[in-house]
Amino acid sequence: MKRYLLDTNICIYFIKGLYDLNKKILEIGEENCFISEITVAELKYGIENSKTIEAMRKIVEAFIPKFRVIPIYNSLDIYAKEKAKLKKQGLLIDDFDILIGSTAIANNMIMVTNNVAHLNRLDNIIIEDWATLSAKK
Known about the structure:
alpha/beta, Rossmann fold, 6 strands
């Protein structure tokens, strides 16, 4: 069975009820969808940066346990290689994006993101954009 790593933007769309992501995740199976520790950090930052901190905290804290959280440790070698490669190419992207993408690669997962333009710079990544239903294989 395919396993999917949901990028932070997909999680935010899901929380906002956009793109019928709830139906897509039910179709795939919540047990086949995962989030990175980095996504948890970004969501928690979003809470603290919100105008409605307590309301957002309740929403995000209810969202996080829906999916197994994948640690990043086993993806750090891929992260280092990819960041060095992108720097040499003059195509650097945000560290968190590289870490999340590297986590998908290290765990043989399909990266689900709306940030295809940046994440497709990583070697050996498989991307699906459930917000536009486009895919790179």
